[in-house]
Amino acid sequence: MGVNLRGRNFLKLLDFTPAEIRYLLDLSKNFKDLKRTGTPHRYLEGKNIVLLFEKTSTRTRCSFEVAGMDLGMGVTYLDPGSSQMGKKESIADTARVLGRMYDGIEYRGFSQELVTELANYAGIPVWNGLTDQFHPTQMLADLLTIEEKLGYLKGVNFVYMGDARNNMGNSLMVACAKMGLNFTACAPKELWPAEDLVKECKKIAKENGCTVTLTEDVKKGTKNADVIYTDIWVSMGEPDSVWAERIKLLKPYQVNKAVMDNAKDTAIFMHCLPSFHDTKTTIGAEIAKKFKIKEMEVTDEVFESKKSVVFDEAENRMHTIKAVMYATLK
Known about the structure:
The chain is of the alpha/beta class. The chain is 45% helix and 13% strand. It is built from 13 helices and nine strands. Strands 7-6-5-8-9 form a five-stranded parallel beta sheet. It has a four-stranded parallel beta sheet with strand order 2-1-3-4, with helices on both faces. The longest helix has 20 residues, at 310-329. The two termini are 18 Å apart.
């Protein structure tokens, strides 16, 4: 029986079966081939989507806009100052208005509850472009990239280093459990994922023949890894006051040459971006001056190495988001 996702919301990977995720990955490959060969694919001409951004973004916004236009759709972008959502108008009312005018809604912001409420009232597909708890569109891009670079997913030893209780740590654990990758969170205990989510993912992993492991031991955690993944140490929206504590906690978990050398020779490095691997950003320069640290979650040596696939990963956001929109709107 074929997979049919028409009319579905895309809020978190926990809502999808491995077969449905596999379908989206295969669809993404098809769209990537069409894009690379310059083959028109305006399959959703006449439809319109709206992008709601409470958190700014480069990759998510550009991926949704280009994907939407490639598919032939009209695209409206609303930043926090361009909408009354949550201020003069409730989320439920906003959803019901937008649902009358558009065919799909993307939301990128803080609350998973908010994107869920949008989905409950809109009457059209709602896609999660990132919340504090989950980042499902990034997961599809990551899975696609791993499969492209390593040739397979099931049995891959995947290690996430850093703040493992943020949206990336949560989402990667879910994605690995669903698709048969052995997931390891290598992080201080204070930054491990919530126990209930870990328990749920371990159950899913068992069904799919893989494992979920939490460890504070960098050498043990990264041994024989196929993928080393990290993210920035302080997420968007967190106060500047957490920098000192986070640097102290996570400096031992920086991805550097020693970490990559401890992994398999064929291991790849991944990062959802943006990254503080040098001081060429305003924040990077400020942190370097204040805390005397020029590289944070990953060293420039690793980031710029042949093992780094971060820009392939970034491009794949566009192809996988296109697949999600097409599958839910066709």
